[in-house]
Amino acid sequence: MDEEQTLKDLLAIMHENDLDALKIKVGDAIFELVRREPGAAAAAPAAAAAAVPAPSGPAAPAASANVKKVTAPLVGVFYRSAAPDAEAFVKEGDRVETGQVLCILEAMKLFNEITSDYSGIVTRIVPENGELVSLGQELFWIEP
Known about the structure:
Blueprint: H1 3-16, E1 21-26, E2 29-34, H2 45-49, E3 68-71, E4 76-79, E5 95-96, E6 101-107, E7 110-115, E8 120-125, E9 132-133, E10 138-143
Antiparallel strand pairs: 1-2, 3-10, 4-6, 4-9, 5-8, 6-7, 8-10
């Protein structure tokens, strides 16, 4: 498959699923597409490159040296529970075991359970519930 066809296919996926951003790795190539508002300047590469804006407000806490970070294996919408009225899979301060479900990422109407690669205490949950997360974005901090 050539690069132009791959881009067309990825754009079709974005439009079909009403996504604002999509980042995917195909072989050695990484494609990141970000929807801009109509009329946005095409010469704004810094704005176009950011799939998810940096959180505003107070500065994020620094991770301790032994913290393990669970990152998003795909682009999707982050959910802390299986249903809006259900209890969160985990909360800050909870002890988790390897293989335990931490959250769900919804991508293209598929719900993907994200499990922990580490045992320890959840010290930080980075995204807000319902937030779009990028490939590789930090989701959880876990300390042994």
